[in-house]
Each structure stands twice: as structure tokens, then as C-alpha cells.
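Our example copied in:
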Amino acid sequence: MGVSIMLAAAILRLGRATLVLAILLAGAAAVLDGREVFLQLARANASVARLAALTALAHAVVVIRAVLAWLAASNHAEPATGRNTQ
């Protein structure tokens, strides 16, 4: 959790450069949390599996939001061509 807070602070302070790191770390955490869901279900521990599933979902949302932020920042960084491409 401490790493997540430090990463959020880095994104606020450093901006777009840290979004790739957020995508990678949150993606890895989502995969590991998903694995934990299946491990806990195999142990018949439904309550812990439910918590792991919610955590995996939260990490997946972070990945999606970071990708959307990356795309939005990329669109603003492109130079204007002056042409209407529609």
C-alpha cells in the first residue's frame, strides 16, 4: 500500500512519465491478486477470495485509468498540423 501511495504522489508531481510505471505495477498487482482469488477458492476460503477479487478489480481500474490518462496526455502532446482530418 505504501508503494501505491508513493506512486500516486509521483504521478501528481512528475506527471506523464510515471504513468507507464503505474500501468506496469498495477497490472502486475492485478495478475497476482487474480491468482490469489483462485488459491483462496481452492482452500475454500470464500471471504478472503472475495477480498482478493475486489483488490484485483481495483488494480485493474487503476490500469485502465492510467492508460486513458496516458492516451489523453499523448493527444495533447501532438503538434497541431492545421489540417482538418475529418
Q: What stands out?
A: The chain has a mean pLDDT of 84. Helices lie at 2-14, 19-42, 46-77. The two ends are 45 Å apart (CA to CA).
